[in-house]
Fold this sequence. Notes:
alpha/beta; 4-stranded antiparallel β-sheet; globular
Amino acid sequence: MSETILELKDVAIFQKENLVLNEVSLDVKKGDFVYLIGKTGSGKSSFMKTLYADLPLRQGEGSIAGFDLKSLKEKHIPHLRRKLGVVFQDFKLLPDRNINNNMLFVLKATGWKDNSKMKAKIEEVLDKVGMKTKGFKFPHELSGGEQQRVAIARALLNDPELILADEPTGNLDPQTSVEVMKVLQDINKSGRTILMATHDYALILKYPSKTLKCDGGKIFEVVQRTV
């Protein structure tokens, strides 16, 4: 039996006072690659934000990477986020420092102290995404696809149990999207669990996997038709 990384039971997800999703029950096992699809405004981002504790879980039961989302105290949120790698659509790289220093900032913020270990870790994650030679460049010197590769590398720094990728190809052209997707596929094959929100159906057809859909205030599994 695979270990469950994410489990939700009868969860309601709110954005302020508005109920966005209701009666959400699902489980994601270690090593899964799961898509989350749905129209803009269907609740995908609110769902993701609840998982990394940007929005509180107020109703239902939820556990993620060993943390209980319902009883999670604010002081424990940084510990939860160390177990998660979050990849955003707009990269969120710090523009005033080069890529190596972007990585260093995250490691120091999450409690790393040893300079040689930090340097080795940065090299390792950049190598994984094919960006080992680009550490001295600044974000504005990189293409969108390269910035997203760096963002994925950053998400790997603390060896997360689960990577949450929120529209990681949303700002990229089709060819670059495929390149970024290949990086995510390789990371998944090495045993990492990935939950990816996307509206890029071409990618889902090219790389079929378990798919959840946000629609009408619910999340349900979509059975993919084989063409």
